[in-house]
Amino acid sequence: MPMSTATKIAFIGLGVMGGPMADHLARGGFEVTAYNRSPKRAEAWRKSWEEEGVSANFAATPAEAANSADVVCTCVGNDEDLASVTTGAEGVLEGMSKGSLLIDHTTTSADMARHLGGICATNAIGFVDAPVSGGQAGAENGQLAIMCGGSDEAIERARPAMEPYAKAIVHVGPVGAGQTAKMANQMCIAGVLGGLSEAIRLVQGAGLDLEKTYEAISGGAAQSWQMDNRWATMTKDEFDFGFAIDWMRKDLGYALDEAKRLGLSSPISALVDQFYAEVQSAGGGRQDTSALITRLPKAKTTK
Questions:
Q1: What is the Cα–Cα distance from 19 to 162, expressed in whole angstroms?
Q2: In contact, 180 and 130? CB cutoff 8 Å
Q3: Is 260 among the residues known to form the active site?
Q4: Are strands 166-173 and 71-74 parallel, antiparallel or unpaired?
Q5: Residue ranges making up the domain that contains 140
Q6: For the purposes of burial, counting CB atoms within 10 Å of the CB of 274, is it exposed (0-12), middle (13-18) or buried (19 or more)?
Q7: Among the three residues 174, 195, 212, which one is the final residue of a domain in this structure?
Q8: Integer CA distances (angstroms), 248 to 174, 190, 193, 218, 291, in order
Q9: Distance between CA 105 and CA 182 in Å, rounded?
């Protein structure tokens, strides 16, 4: 059924990703009720919207936010956080009615997505697992890539609610498929950053012009989003932004578990995860994933 801006949407989780996503919905004219576990962050969004005349409501619990909502969106941290705001005490499922729709933007395990999808099906609630890629900038600019798992009907119902913050919405397969696609996404990023880190140290060690080298190789087969967006900051040792290593390790953990469940070997992802663990132990857990390069010492001398 087509969705209009009169649709009532509950948005649970106003963090680095969820806050801007909810912002796009509120500014897009949807009737938004928001909830965040941290009252401080919720208050910051309330003030921001009030100052700019954007209409949105705030709830004291996820269940209250979900009450009478046509669509509920969740964007929290991990499996445990998602369970808390959905199936836990005063979770959204206590407030959702039959025929409503739950869209989960959290990056979780595929098992969690399948489990939650089953509970929703039992309660005649539609469900889409819809993790996103594009980082904070993508969320703020409404340019997220969204990988979706669920039925054809659920995806089509969810699409109008996701379009305000999406660059691409792709239906990958049944419930759980969106999360598996996100795992593949994170494995690719980890592998690329591993190679990019070593390449930059090589260029630095050889005493090459960093900008000229980037220009030379970014137009060919080595080009990647990570190279285009992280080469300059990695060479300047700037990492206080972007997607935190703590979250990447969480995501790679899900990916490695799913690969093991399928009887697959993922040695490169496992190795990069170990490298990230080193950076994490050195205090870099909240730095961008490109801080992977910090575990590689620079050459003592240059030519």
A1: 14
A2: no
A3: no
A4: unpaired
A5: 8-174
A6: exposed
A7: 174
A8: 24, 8, 12, 25, 12
A9: 11
**Residue 251 in tokens:** 């995501």
Q: Out of 98, 182, 236, 298, which one is annotated catalytic?
A: 182
Burial class (CB in 10 A: 0-12, 13-18, 19+), 65: buried
The structure tokens listed for 242 are: 């972007």
**pTM for this one?**
0.93
Residues 33, 161, single domain; the answer is yes
The whole-angstrom separation of Cα 184 and Cα 172 is: 12
86-142 tens-digit pLDDT: 999 999 999 999 999 999 999 999 999 999 999 999 999 999 999 999 999 999 999
Same domain, 136 and 195: no
Last residue of a domain, one of 159, 174, 189: 174
Q: Which helix (H) or strand (E) holds 62?
A: helix 62-66
Q: Is residue 245 part of a domain?
A: yes
| Distance in angstroms (rounded) separating the CA atoms of residues 56 and 25 | 10
Neighbouring C-alpha atoms within 13 Å toward the C-beta of 281: 7
